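2.7 Reproducibility. Because tokenized structures are sensitive to small changes in the input, we list the exact sequence used for GntR family transcriptional regulator, including any N-terminal residues retained from the expression construct. No trimming or masking was applied before prediction.
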Amino acid sequence: MPIPTNHSKPVRQSAKENAFNQIQEWIIDGTLSPGEKLNDTELANALGSSRTPIRESLQLLEVQGFVKMYPGKSTEVTEIEREAIKDLLPPLAALQSLSAELAIGQITEEQLKQLEDINEHFAKLIHSNNAYAALKVDEEFHQVIIEITKNTYIKNMVKSLQAHVRRHFFHNSIILTERSIEEHKAIITAMKNGEKDKAAAIMKDNWLGTLDDFQP
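Resulting structure tokens (single pass, no recycling of outputs):
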């Protein structure tokens, strides 16, 4: 099982949090490939940890659908099912849409400017064909809105779903286009004007529009 040794080790995290975040990232970006068997001893050595936090993190990753544990046998990275994007995006779109609606009335001028700046950065990355960096900035755009709602339930559910979105991106199920730039602008405008229904509708279309570009 090939495991990189030059990864950064986050500080101020528990061993379990560190293990969970790093293993999840390796699964998302394909370092640990679909179907690969995971060895908790090797993972513990790579992460400078004992086996207990590794096992605990693998249990959490199983709950989230990133690994499958076969008691007494093995733990394997789950296969990526490209068609699953059709099940993944609708609930994420609904949560993001609700976030846009809830954020109106709370969002400040400073935060609106922050969204505009993030979208400008996003546009530059799209135009330069820097797809993964654009995906991360797109996440940043939406995360600002989620944080404004101060709704921990939405935040936690979106975080879990977003991790699967990144994994699908690496397996070419998701394509970001210039359309998202204009939709972001429209979302910002609707939020400036206090148009809850419009902001929510555009946000939902922003996520579901990805399905129009999906090719199984």
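The beta strands are 37-38, 67-70, 74-77.
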